[in-house]
């Protein structure tokens, strides 16, 4: 028998390691869905069947992410104010890392997790700007000197929070700059985007979104690193920033845009409409609307499959995960999930509104 060539041997070991990182029945990949009224649902990406649930003690999980090696799943739990860490080989909760009140959005990068949390949040969305309720809340926060939201920086190797970056009120989405040194966040109640130096936490720039609408939510960098796109929920707009974080244009969308992501090659930009019950597809360069696909109710976040052939959307108000054929937009399957699905990511890692490979 001839010896295996060193390069082939390395490739075989890599495939073997990937298979070990996945449950035996889901070697083709798995999706993890956070349920605000439950735990984490797992979906086999070969069959699009629900194959189990990961118990993290409920606590209203929302944002989630997987480490690059596929060993850990980290989940922001609103009710416990922490980051639940799951060993994906055993599917067991191994650690809870205190974050602060009302953690929501999670991005994993290397051995660190970045988690937005809101000390002043009363729970639920802020009142619509210009209403009596909004003015009363603004005055109350000023009187009480309430704290702005923050982005916690967590060392996943050590298992502890190692720093914080001060955001605005009701900080939501998180994205990293092309050079990796800055973080861009959407501040829902302050109606702006802010850019911060990660190492120092220093505020570098504030971008006012009120001329285009209020309540910025999702944000994504284009794959070439030359632009950033943010969704403006109560404005039905996309705001496009250039590489220097200057507003280049605003683009009209359907009703209440939320999650946003580019495809792998950057040729298409996808936007989930929470109330519009539609996934809109835009040209990634010109931002012209190309097409749109009907989905479910309040589909907040979505992800491609690792092979880019399907898109899975977590639809919280229709209690389902909707699977689309990425090329045609046709619905392949509706996976019932009765506990208000909020976020969704995969391993192997895919492009989506909460993650990138």
Structure description:
There is one protein chain. The chain has helices at 6-21, 132-144; strands at residues 30-35, 40-44, 49-54, 61-66, 72-77, 82-87, 92-98, 103-109, 112-117, 150-155, 160-166, 171-176, 182-187, 192-197, 203-208, 214-221, 227-234, 237-242, 247-252, 257-262, 268-273, 278-283, 289-294, 299-304, 310-315, 320-325, 331-336, 341-347. It is mainly β and 357 residues long. The protein folds into three domains: 27-168, YVTN repeat-like/Quinoprotein amine dehydrogenase (Methylamine Dehydrogenase, Chain H, 7 Propeller), CATH 2.130.10; 170-252, 4 Propeller (Hemopexin); 256-357, Beta Barrel (Thrombin, subunit H), CATH 2.40.10. The strands form seven sheets. The chain has a four-stranded antiparallel beta sheet, with no helix packed on it. A four-stranded antiparallel beta sheet has the order 4-5-6-7, with no helix packed on it. The chain has a four-stranded antiparallel beta sheet with strand order 8-9-10-11, with no helix packed on it. Residues 10-25 have low confidence and may be disordered.
> What oligomeric state is this?
single chain
Query: Total strand count, please?
Result: 28
* Regions with little confidence, pLDDT below 50 for 5+ residues: 10-25
Question: What is the makeup of the main sheet?
Answer: 4 strands, antiparallel
How are the strands of the largest sheet arranged?
3-2-1-28
């Amino acid at each position: 028998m001839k010896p295996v060539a060193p390069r082939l041997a390395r490739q075989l070991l890599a495939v073997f390691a990937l298979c070990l990182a996945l449950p035996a029945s889901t070697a083709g990949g798995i999706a993890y869905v956070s349920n605000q009224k439950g735990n984490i649902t797992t979906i086999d990406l070969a069959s699009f069947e629900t194959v189990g649930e990961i118990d993290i003690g409920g606590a209203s999980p929302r944002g989630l992410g997987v480490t690059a090696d596929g060993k850990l799943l980290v989940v922001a739990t609103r009710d416990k104010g922490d980051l639940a860490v799951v060993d994906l080989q055993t599917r067991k909760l191994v650690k809870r890392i205190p974050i602060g009140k009302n953690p929501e959005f999670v991005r994993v990068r290397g051995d660190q997790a970045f988690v937005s949390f809101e000390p002043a949040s009363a729970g639920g969305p802020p009142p619509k700007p210009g209403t009596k309720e909004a003015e009363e809340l603004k005055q109350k926060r000023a009187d009480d000197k309430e704290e702005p939201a923050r982005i916690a920086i967590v060392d996943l190797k050590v298992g502890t929070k190692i720093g914080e970056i001060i955001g605005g009120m009701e900080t939501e989405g998180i994205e990293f700059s092309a050079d990796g040194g800055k973080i861009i966040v959407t501040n829902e109640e302050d109606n702006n985007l802010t850019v911060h130096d990660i190492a120092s936490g220093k505020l570098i720039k504030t971008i006012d979104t009120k001329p285009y609408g209020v309540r910025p939510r999702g944000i994504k960098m284009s794959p070439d690193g030359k632009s950033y796109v943010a969704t403006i929920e109560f404005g039905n707009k996309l705001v496009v920033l250039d590489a220097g974080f200057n507003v280049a244009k605003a683009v009209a969308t359907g009703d209440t845009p939320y999650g946003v992501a580019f495809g792998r090659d950057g040729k298409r930009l996808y936007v989930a409409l929470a109330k519009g019950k539609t996934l809109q597809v835009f040209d990634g360069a010109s931002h012209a609307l190309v097409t749109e696909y009907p989905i479910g109710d309040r589909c907040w976040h979505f992800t491609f499959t690792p092979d880019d052939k399907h898109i899975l959307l977590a639809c919280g108000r229709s209690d389902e995960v909707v699977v689309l054929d990425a090329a045609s937009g046709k619905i392949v399957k509706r996976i019932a999930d009765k506990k208000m699905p909020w976020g969704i990511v995969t391993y192997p890692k895919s492009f989506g509104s909460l993650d990138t490979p």
